[in-house]
Amino acid sequence: MRPYIILNAAMTLDGKIATKKGSSEISGPEDLERVHHIRKDVDGIMVGINTLLADDPRLTVHKISSKASDNPTRIVVDSRGRTPLDARILNNDAPTIIAVSKKAPLSKVEKFREKAEVLICGEERVDLVELMKNLKEKRINSLMLEGGSTLNFSMLKEGLVDEVRVCIAPMIVGGSQAKTLVDGSGIDFMKDAIQLKLNKSYPLGKDYILEYSVLQGKETIK
């Protein structure tokens, strides 16, 4: 058992979620509000350590609500315990869980525990399947995944994503070093690609929203 997981991201027309310098201001205000409504509707919101280090996000619903109870639990996948102790996700706005592997320094883990809950899952890297089971046991029944690109790929590869929702902004940035929606090691052959089924599409401000179900090998696209 695991949470129901929605991968959500904003990207340029050429699939970039940030420029080569890390700039990621992509979608318009209407999309940002949409994202905060999704956050309000789920039990948890998860990012990888690279996203945390690059953006220092709050991961709250502050654009639509000031009620602390409306904020989801914030989850960081941080295998080696690199989360800065002054990161904004360690404030009191919402509960926070930091998932680490056994390679994370014990001294840092103890510091984390002063401000957040720590889950140790995996030897070298966080075991995402184990993490999802632990989150489900903590009554996190729905989860919004906000990446970044490496974590997005890992979650998809493990079959842990149920939906993909993307905001496509009318812009192109290029750059071989710019992060795309999904990076990681990738898939070698198109026949093995992760298959999606389009459920909904609509314009939103200057952007365009696409919502897909992830087909887990038991369905065919009709």
Describe the fold and architecture.
- The protein is an alpha/beta fold.
- The protein has five helices and nine strands, in the order E-H-E-H-E-E-H-E-H-E-H-E-E-E.
- It has a single domain, classed as 3-Layer(aba) Sandwich (Dihydrofolate Reductase, subunit A).
Total beta strands: 9
Assembly form of the protein: single chain
Taken from the alpha-carbon principal axes, the silhouette is globular
**Spatial extent as radius of gyration:** 17 Å
CATH class annotation: Alpha Beta
Task: Report strand %.
Answer: 25-35%
Descriptive key words:
Dihydrofolate Reductase, subunit A, 9 strands, globular, alpha/beta
Give a short overview.
The chain is α/β, with parallel strands linked by helices. The chain has helices at 29-41, 49-55, 106-112, 128-137, 149-157, and strands at 4-12, 44-48, 73-77, 96-100, 117-120, 142-145, 163-169, 195-204, 207-215. A hairpin with a 2-residue loop joins strand 8 and strand 9.
Task: Draw up the topology in text.
Layout: E1 4-12, H1 29-41, E2 44-48, H2 49-55, E3 73-77, E4 96-100, H3 106-112, E5 117-120, H4 128-137, E6 142-145, H5 149-157, E7 163-169, E8 195-204, E9 207-215
Parallel strand pairs: 1-6, 1-7, 2-3, 2-6, 3-4, 4-5
Antiparallel strand pairs: 7-9, 8-9
